[in-house]
Specification:
Length: 78
């Protein structure tokens, strides 16, 4: 079975959290091995999670989370 980029993008968070089923994780992993764009998105997402989880690095501006969620909702059409 072939998985498309748009599906991988939906699975990135669950992939990083290791909460995908073994079959889905295998499909995503195989796609990431061959797709530079999806691999870059996965790596960028992981880096963002690492940076934002470390409160010693920086403090987010007030309202940042709300603005981010609103912008993401506009981009993905929610």
């Amino acid at each position: 079975m072939i998985i498309k980029c748009k599906h991988v993008w939906n699975f990135v968070s669950d992939y990083l959290d290791d909460s995908l089923s073994p079959a889905t994780r295998d499909l995503v992993q195989r796609h990431l091995e061959h797709c530079e764009i999806c691999s870059a998105i996965q790596n960028s997402t992981r880096n963002i999670l690492v940076l934002t989880a470390d409160d010693r690095v920086f403090e987010l501006p007030v309202g940042f989370s709300d603005r981010l969620h609103a912008r993401l909702a506009r981009k993905i059409g929610c």
